[in-house]
Amino acid sequence: MPPTRFLALAVLLGLTVSSASPIASAGALADRVRVLEDQQAIRAVLIQYGDYLDAQDYGHYAALFAKDGVWTGGYGTATGPAAIQALMEKSMGKPAPGFINRTKFHLMATEQIAVTGDTATVRSRFTVFTADADGRPAPSRAGRYVDAFVREPGGWRIKRRTTYGIIPYSGP
Amino acid sequence: MPPTRFLALAVLLGLTVSSASPIASAGALADRVRVLEDQQAIRAVLIQYGDYLDAQDYGHYAALFAKDGVWTGGYGTATGPAAIQALMEKSMGKPAPGFINRTKFHLMATEQIAVTGDTATVRSRFTVFTADADGRPAPSRAGRYVDAFVREPGGWRIKRRTTYGIIPYSGP
Amino acid sequence: MPPTRFLALAVLLGLTVSSASPIASAGALADRVRVLEDQQAIRAVLIQYGDYLDAQDYGHYAALFAKDGVWTGGYGTATGPAAIQALMEKSMGKPAPGFINRTKFHLMATEQIAVTGDTATVRSRFTVFTADADGRPAPSRAGRYVDAFVREPGGWRIKRRTTYGIIPYSGP
């Protein structure tokens, strides 16, 4: 190939190669966008956790846990959605058909979500309000969660949740 | 063109064509970024809703609604910003000039925002604190919103808001 | 170069040039992703501000301020992390070794974060709960922050925070 044509090709090639950098970084950019989406998806699980607890919908509540997700609390320990649902329904009772929540309000807040591939560590805070004698919402508990999350085929799930009461205080 | 040169061009062409895949997906990536931005913009409207209510700034409050946005509540129904502002000012009274809010605090939280093109469905929670006899913030109402949003030329606006009280309970 | 070959190259060049538009916009897209990441990073600072205050960890608390960041409040004014830490420890006292917070709960919420390059203006709300005589969380203060943030080599930091009480009311 004569030099000028080679040069012409090199210019083209140069254009293409120089464009390889943004093209390559498109992959990195997609990863960063995915992290932002993952954070949103995990935040949705934190919120639904409160929604389902208030609704006493222990089936959907338990489905927020991973297949080997561990529930630990005052009622003992259970592993996996089926066992968690069974423990909750045994401990809390199944709601009557047509149950409408009028007394509990979980307020989830201040999520800090660190995603690493298909796992994440998550810190957040909760405040629970319960209806007082006048029918007003009264704060009864305020605390924080430290969670391990895992990405399953169906989405992000809770692998392990540790609950700390702040007011009143309670250790994990 | 001799085969070798054609091959050289084909290699170049191949490079360019192979790069078409990330280039094409850049459009998809831009769409995903736009959804994340839309969620932020919608969240801002939810927050400003509380800000303007507390400030009794019913002009800016009403401007958060779409041109055919519907306000429904204890004072009746109104459609569009002008009618909503008029209803609020008739029902709540216009604040005195220089009014500073010292008694109401809307806390908006737990937005779950599903964007589909130029519309979105949004679920969120609110807690209202009012000043008690000692001048402290006392929770007076806790509930949730279910909203339809629409993208207008000026940005995202509320098309329809349904308010559910949890404590105290009130249906839509 | 014969016209046909020139055309062939032009086609290639055309492909490359036409691809320049998405490539160029990849830079703009990266900027938009960075803004979303910046908003998350700034939100984390707002949340940690409450975490460290509750933990009486004034070293980490002060490190959330920029090197020329200004703290202004009831104890006076201090500039830069070292001076802010010293002022807080003088005013609030250093916590005893092994201190565990059981009485204070800062709830940060409703961040509205406008990023412009390496600076940002931020509005948010806070509610402080303190343990009452029965050991329950009782809201004691509700207000809002207006902040200027700056990007430093180590990340986003508070350059200036103005605190407004809503209930009870207090000006900046």
From TrEMBL, chains A, B, C:
Q: Name one Pfam family in it.
A: SnoaL_4
Name the UniProt key words of this record, in alphabetical order. Signal
Show where the SnoaL-like domain sits.
35-162
Signal peptide range: 1-26
Tell me where on the tree of life, at the top rank, the source sits.
Bacteria
In terms of CDD domains, this protein maps to: NTF2_like
Q: What is this protein called?
A: Nuclear transport factor 2 family protein
Source organism: Sphingobium nicotianae
Q: What is the lineage of its organism?
A: Bacteria, Pseudomonadati, Pseudomonadota, Alphaproteobacteria, Sphingomonadales
